[in-house]
Amino acid sequence: MNINEIMNSTKHCLHLCDNTNFKEIIFDYLLDYDVLVTKDTKFWKEEFSKNKINIKIKNPNSKLEKQEKVIVDSSSLKNDFSKYEKRLEKQSQVVCVYNLNNLDSSIIKELVACHDKMILSVNNIRMLSNKDFNVEKRLENFNSKIVEKLVKKELKNILLGALLEKPMCGTELVKAVYTKFRVFVSPGMIYPALHELKKEGLLKYEYELKNKIYSIAQEEQAKILLDENAKINSLISQSLQT
Fold it and tell me: For the chain, how far is it from start to end, CA to CA, in angstroms?
């Protein structure tokens, strides 16, 4: 996926990465952008000097020209990100790079809502998603903390259900879970669950362009397991109703 092609049609993009590639993602944008906005100005000046990069660095409180294309080291903004995100809406083109390791799921939902597109880069996989994720509207009426707790508790079954529809890589499963339940489950939770399912003989995987693509190994067994789980959950729900 070519970042520059994506950004040419995007005004306000959210780019989520992790500790392993945060600096690399920032560097990916530098050739086509005018300004890096960051609170860690000293760190980036040193990095740019070492790599002979000539691009303006501005503090978040500095004035920005509307036509300037802006990269934001959003992780440096810490708890002030909401204030600065609001200011950045006026820019003609901006990409906000956040480190997933420093965010919780409630903040991610808020960030997704205020950007046109999202790019997720983890484990050498890059995924582009639309802003709204086609979230199922009926979930809006439920307590988000309860939904999140149940999704994480039932993660293995949710992954099985998603993979019965089609084979996917880990990053696509992160998106699939968010799309359906509006809950962000980190790759750090997804991959151990996939490993357990493979160990149980329910999943298999093959490599496609260096990505692990997971699929169902025993379809009939997976369907029986999900059916039994659904019946048990239904029985529990009925017993809780007053």
Answer: 52
The residues spanned by each domain of the chain are: 3-130, 139-240
Sign for the pseudo-dihedral over CA of 136, 142, 144, 146: negative
* Burial profile 124-136: b = 16 or more Cβ within 10 angstroms, e = fewer: ebbbebeeebeee
- Taking the C-alpha atoms of residue 146 and residue 129, their distance in angstroms, rounded to an integer, is 25
Domain 139-240 has CATH 3.40.50.720: no
Q: pLDDT per residue over 185-226, tens digit each? A: 888 889 999 999 999 999 999 988 778 899 999 999 988 888
Q: Which CATH code is given to the segment(s) 3-130? A: 3.40.50
**pLDDT tens digits, 84-98:** 888 887 788 899 998
The pTM score is: 0.55
DSSP the chain: --HHHHHHT-SEEEEEE-TTTHHHHHHHHGGG-SEEE-S-HHHHHHHHHHTT---EEE-TTS---TT-EEEEEGGGGGGGHHHHHHHHTTSSEEEEEEEGGG--HHHHHHHHHTSSEEEEEETTEEEEEESSTT--GGGGGS-HHHHHHHHHHTHHHHHHHHHHH--B-HHHHHHHHHHHHS----HHHHHHHHHHHHHTTSEEEEEETTEEEEEES-HHHHHHHHHHHHHHHHHHHHHH--
Between the CA of residue 35 and those of 26, 98, 205, 207, what are the distances in Å? 11, 16, 42, 38
